[in-house]
Amino acid sequence: MTLNATIDRVTDRIRERSGTARDAYLHKIARAAEEGPRRAHLSCGNQAHAYAAMDDKEDMATTRKPNIGIVTAYNDMLSAHQPYEKFPDVIRRAGHAAGATVQVAGGVPAMCDGVTQGRPGMELSLFSRDVIALAAGVALSHDCFDSALYLGVCDKIVPGLVIAAATFGHVPAVFIPAGPMPSGLPNDEKSKVRQQFAAGEVDRATLMQAEMASYHSPGTCTFYGTANSNQMLMEFMGLHLPGSSFVNPNTPLREALTVAGVERAAAITGLGNEYLPAGHVLDERAFVNGIVGLMATGGSTNLVMHLPAMARAAGVLLDIEDFHDISEAVPLMARVYPNGLADVNHFHAAGGLGYMIGQLLEAGLLHADVKTINGTGLDGYTAEPRLEGDRVRWQQGAAETLNDRILRPASNPFARTGGLKQLDGNLGRGVIKISAVAEERHRIEAKARVFSDQEQVKAAFKAGEFTEDTVVVVRFQGPRANGMPELHSLTPMLAVLQDRGLKVALLTDGRMSGASGKVPAAIHISPEASVGGPLARLRDGDLIRLDATTGAIDCLAEDFDSRTPQPFDPAPSSEGMGREMFAFFRNNAGDATMGGACVV
């Protein structure tokens, strides 16, 4: 199939924009690769330190077996990461059987945004991505590894690990998922109880019962938020094995896929004939494929922040116009909560990523000629894994959707476009996701209520102050202000106002959760208010026009451009809950349109 003209044009634009940076990056990792297997350059003393705790230290010292380094985000605070506790033992056994040695190179922190939503700890969340990249860099700095296995699932963890994998781009990289928890209380029922609690219709015991029935076991949360969008991304970008993203934890197939991932990590080192540096996988075509997957699945807006940071680490420069243009060309093929009633287990059973990739390839919407850890182009990702004994084998996946209420062909999608829109106007530049927003809510013209934090919004809601159509503005929420926390805890209240018949929208230089959906939210507005961006000039009562159909976001006040910006007070976000230690990140963060990162 001929490549779609828009996908081709956007890829060429990225390639041209990135030319100097990508060339410098490829030369850097080529120089590193020329030095050969890294352990050969260690002194005997260095090597003895590295191997001292290993049972097979003699193999390490005297043979040319590949040594695989594990970078793990294991903890049991995150349900998605708890299964990783036992992975190192599985990986060691599989590595030894494949003729390799294995070491846990290091651990990286992993916080649960589900725990920190609406809490001060959320202000550390975005920058935890940079900390993860740095921690993974420390792990790999021992220079002992011929390939690396990355164990990570959730919101900032995968982007941080990809930044590290790209930075150490001469080292082959395989990402190993852990899988989603089995389905529990349906996500729409959980959301309904949250709205009932926000409206005072049910008590906290009822709310707690619903939450516990939804989040109930090891594995990723089952809604299609940032964590599961990450897993999709790794498959579309060729860093997972085909069909491995949404296999449940603690199952024989899950373990067999982990073993297969170890075998690939052993096969693609510089010691064999299939050397595949991570930096060669992570080219502009891989990132375009990832964006296509994001749009076709209706994935998390957080990836609009993370993908530019990941790409920059590989010398690829993305812009939000790339997301917008790709979204206009790619149909929305999936309805997974919050964009529908199904969860990721239902999506996987309906044909999942393999079916979707096949459809998108047929439509010319994906680059097929990419490098992947599977040793094939992207067409190998239309296969699905099956268990034969204790081994995984791949067979051709579903040729037709197994449930067209969840997953549809590219020729008959749920929507013509992916639903992500670029916004531009006198209020700045940002994005809005409309795939779950009712069409009649794509445009709003209403007075602004301006707040400096989400607690002020909650207080106004409890006081009954929202009685007319309103654009709720929450400013001073950007990376340089307070770390750009997600504002997901506002969703139930704004949804209640919608259900009361009001037209409401959120306008912010902060982020929303990947689980947010039906309330229109203009997010990532840049330049952010804390550095004098346009949101700092807004006042209560200003008439705001937000039009997702045209991409316009404007304040209609005649004197708007001549106003003096309101100053930002950093004091509330400068101390407590570890904020003191993150001042460096706040002071040095890049613009949200470039990923809001410090390390790239």
From TrEMBL:
Residues 406-595 form the Dihydroxy-acid/6-phosphogluconate dehydratase C-terminal domain. Keywords: 4Fe-4S, Carbohydrate metabolism, Gluconate utilization, Iron, Iron-sulfur, Lyase, Metal-binding. [4Fe-4S] cluster binds at C154, C221. It holds the Pfam family ILV_EDD_C. The keyword Oxidoreductase does not apply. InterPro entries: 6-phosphgluc_deHydtase (IPR004786), Dihydro-acid_dehy_C (IPR042096), DiOHA_6PGluconate_deHydtase_CS (IPR020558), ILV_EDD_C (IPR056740), ILV_EDD_N (IPR000581), IlvD/EDD_N (IPR037237). It catalyses: 6-phospho-D-gluconate = 2-dehydro-3-deoxy-6-phospho-D-gluconate + H2O. One of its GO terms (molecular function) is phosphogluconate dehydratase activity. PROSITE patterns: ILVD_EDD_1 (PS00886), ILVD_EDD_2 (PS00887). Binds 1 [4Fe-4S] cluster. Belongs to the IlvD/Edd family. Catalyzes the dehydration of 6-phospho-D-gluconate to 2-dehydro-3-deoxy-6-phospho-D-gluconate. This is Phosphogluconate dehydratase.
